């Protein structure tokens, strides 16, 4: 990562995590928290994305050790423990289906036209916990547009790598591999939908879905598919791994919705990792103002 002088910093710059931590510790000593933005950068240097929250960020340690990535096992610690077996270089992504310029791109070519920006998003897992994660990446729409989707492209389907040697959890049938997910075209093109390549100013660790993962902050976390190798424009609503495993529990839309219980638990509240008391879960995970209009006229109990 480029080292820049502080007067060169733009809103796209983020502090290296180690630096961030040192600044935090320094501030704790000073008791000078108010001088800083949530990321630890001096406020002067920080024109934060309008899409970012200024809620307290979950520590790097928690974001990288408390994970769901069933390709490495079902315990929260399994991804951090076993993810070193995933080889992310070389990496390529196939983009195909209803578009004028399909292709298989190596990661460098896929990323080249995009400058990265920071998005500090809430992540709400369907299990009832949440985090605040400072991602780096670029809008999904900017990537999709490069392939000229046709008028037949009504949905986008995403697929994670299949390789049981690198992803040992795939030797078991806890889910139907490959892990797949999908978005309706307008959801995919929404400015909040994000392709992440890093967090806390560092490249993504494997347990968080390196080298490229989706982030859709108004939907339950399982929509944010990791380690993507294929993106397909499709005419029909694609099925999803979680939908195939339990269709009555995991709908296609899976918008965060405190009014629609999971069949086995309430979705009214959530535990923000690091906090003791539970907090209220917000409709669309707090992004209603930006995304509720995508669903006008839809019955969100039926389309859960
Ligand atoms: N390929 C793949 N993507 C996945 C998962 C998974 O098991 N496999 N788990 C999902 C779930 S349930 C959540 S909550 C988020 C967790 O992302 P994080 O570990 O980076 O916080 O990843 C999602 N993406
Ligand atoms: Mo999740």
Automatic annotation (TrEMBL):
GO terms for biological process: protein repair. Residues 87-242 form the Oxidoreductase molybdopterin-binding domain. Pfam families: Oxidored_molyb. Mo-molybdopterin binds at residues 67, 70-71, 125, 160, 208, 213, 224-226. NCBIfam families: PRK05363.1. Binds 1 Mo-molybdopterin (Mo-MPT) cofactor per subunit. SUPFAM superfamilies: Oxidoreductase molybdopterin-binding domain. Part of the MsrPQ system that repairs oxidized periplasmic proteins containing methionine sulfoxide residues (Met-O), using respiratory chain electrons. Thus protects these proteins from oxidative-stress damage caused by reactive species of oxygen and chlorine generated by the host defense mechanisms. MsrPQ is essential for the maintenance of envelope integrity under bleach stress, rescuing a wide series of structurally unrelated periplasmic proteins from methionine oxidation. InterPro entries: MsrP (IPR022867), OxRdtase_Mopterin-bd_dom (IPR000572), OxRdtase_Mopterin-bd_sf (IPR036374), TAT_signal (IPR006311). Heterodimer of a catalytic subunit (MsrP) and a heme-binding subunit (MsrQ). Predicted to be exported by the Tat system. The position of the signal peptide cleavage has not been experimentally proven. GO terms for molecular function: metal ion binding; molybdopterin cofactor binding; oxidoreductase activity, acting on a sulfur group of donors, quinone or similar compound as acceptor. It comes from the Bacteria. PANTHER family: PROTEIN-METHIONINE-SULFOXIDE REDUCTASE, PROTEIN-METHIONINE-SULFOXIDE REDUCTASE CATALYTIC SUBUNIT MSRP. This is Protein-methionine-sulfoxide reductase catalytic subunit MsrP. It is an enzyme of class 1 (oxidoreductase). Its cofactor is Mo-molybdopterin. Belongs to the MsrP family.
